[in-house]
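WARN no homologs supplied; continuing
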Amino acid sequence: MLVLGVVVYLIYLFIPHDSKGTPVKTETVGYSVELKQARRDAPYPVAGPEGLSAKWHATSVTYTAGDRRNVTWHLGFIDPDQQYVALEQSNGDPTGFISQVTINAHRDAGRTVAVGGASWQYYTGGRYDALVREEKGVTTVVLGTAPDAQLQRFAATLKP
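OK structure emitted
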């Protein structure tokens, strides 16, 4: 039993288990195929960035359409300052979706910004700040660790 305990302890020492670490990936991924597929399939206009500089690196992309009443689109980036910025979209319940993707950020009442001709609501949270737009059955969230100005720059590049 003692030998088994020592083996388990050694395994524990050598397996990464940093629960406070960031879940953000840093490996660059392509997303154009997934974006085209999502735009063909989704019941709402799927947004994607246009005109980002080469200093922005896509690190994650996910399209989930198992439930047509809750189709989700995710596109994550590392910006030029090595901060995380993501686009999240869904046609599901806006309140639950916003809470989930922003990790319980709270609406900053009265704080809005006009970006690309649309009004976005600010949300602030412990891990991420976010810009949120709800319209025509779809909720669009731009969130991240980047400063507000960078979130706004990214939101301005989004095209359906």
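The radius of gyration is 18 Å.
OK
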